[in-house]
Amino acid sequence: MAPRICMVGSSNMDLIARVPRVPAPGETLIGSRFQTSFGGKGANQAVMAARLGAQVAVVTKLGRDVFGENTLANYHAQGIDTSAVFFDEQSSSGVALITVDENTGQNSIVIVPGANYTLTTADIQAASGVIQSADVIMAQIEIPIAITLEAFRVAKAGGKATTILNPAPAAPLPDELLRLTDIIVPNEIEAAMLTALPTGTLDEATAAARALQGWGIQMVVLTLGSRGALLVNGDEAPQYVRAQAVQAVDTTGAGDAFVGSFAYLLGSGFSPLAAVERAAAIATRSVLKPGAQPSFPTRDEVAEFLH
Ligand code: RIB
Fold first, then answer.
1. Which residue of 90, 131, 228, 272 is most buried, as measured by CB atoms within 10 A?
2. How does pLDDT run across 180-239, given as a tens digit for each residue?
3. Would strands 162-165 and 183-184 be described as parallel, antiparallel, or unpaired?
């Protein structure tokens, strides 16, 4: 049975420029390529999980503009349940302005959340049926933290869902949200910010993951960019998964490819370690093409490189 995954979070339109380097303040730089694609950490994670075969529903809010209309159409095209997609009549849809360094594939992102920040607790209550019928709830914090918290409250009141929090972009988290989180998936920057500990070496990253567990979270999956990922589950020994070395074209959305794949794999019955290993391989694949969602492999492509 395909796992039922509910994503509560953001949808953006990504406006992406490939540039020779990050521009300096006051500088005008000529870029080499422009691309628009569907993005938002939430939307990306939902699409990744759906592409692998999950039954996905999204709880998200769009503006009444062309980006919002196209985003809704994109969710339909990916076979995603949009019964809990809301619209704000006053705000623009979320937008991300992204520059990608054409030499390294590294990105810089400015987000204008727009309608994403107008999701309300009433919206979450209205979506409670969708949330409580899911096996896995996937959330980030590109929407107000209070709304993510409300979604986890509703999920836990339903009594069956595993909650996965990707604390991105980095921000302090309320204690109650941590208590309601079963699995946290920060990157090294977010883990360092949350714990005020360094994450530069594996030992440091392990100590930061243990500190996150100290807040009552059972499982920590710390993503380490091109280095791979670290799994710290309960009191088991930490497991380090090394990523395959590749020449990145565009790292945008790699973390989302990881989270969406991990949620799908865990919900499909893979062990946490197998889910991390496979999600890391899928995320690595995603950096070989430009954009976030356009770079995510399909189920058939994944079957070719993962057996
Ligand atoms: O994680 C990548 C995503 O971050 C982009 O798609 C952009 O929309 C921002 O939300």
1. 131
2. 999 999 999 999 999 999 999 999 999 999 999 999 999 999 999 999 999 999 999 999
3. parallel
CA 231 to ligand 1 centroid distance, Å: 24
For the CA of 96, the nearest atom of ligand 1 = 8
Q: What domain range is 76 assigned to?
A: 4-25+33-305
Alpha carbon dihedral 276, 196, 248, 139, in 10-degree steps, equals: 50
**Three-class secondary structure of residue 179 per DSSP:** helix
Which residue spans within the chain are E strands per DSSP?
4-8, 12-19, 33-39, 55-63, 81-88, 94-101, 107-112, 136-139, 162-165, 183-184, 219-223, 228-233, 239-242
Point out the ligand 1 atom lying closest to the alpha carbon of residue 13: 8
> pLDDT averaged over the chain?
96
Q: How confident is the model at residue 307 (pLDDT cuts 50, 70, 90)?
A: confident
The catalytically annotated residue of 81, 88, 123, 256 is: 256
Q: Which atom of ligand 1 is nearest to the CA of 292?
A: 6
Sign of the alpha-carbon torsion through 4, 143, 286, 32: positive
Number of domains, the chain: 1
Which CATH number belongs to the domain containing residue 246 in this structure? 3.40.1190.20
- The answer to whether residue 175 is catalytic is no
Q: Measured between alpha carbons, how far is 74 from 68 in angstroms, rounded to an integer?
A: 10
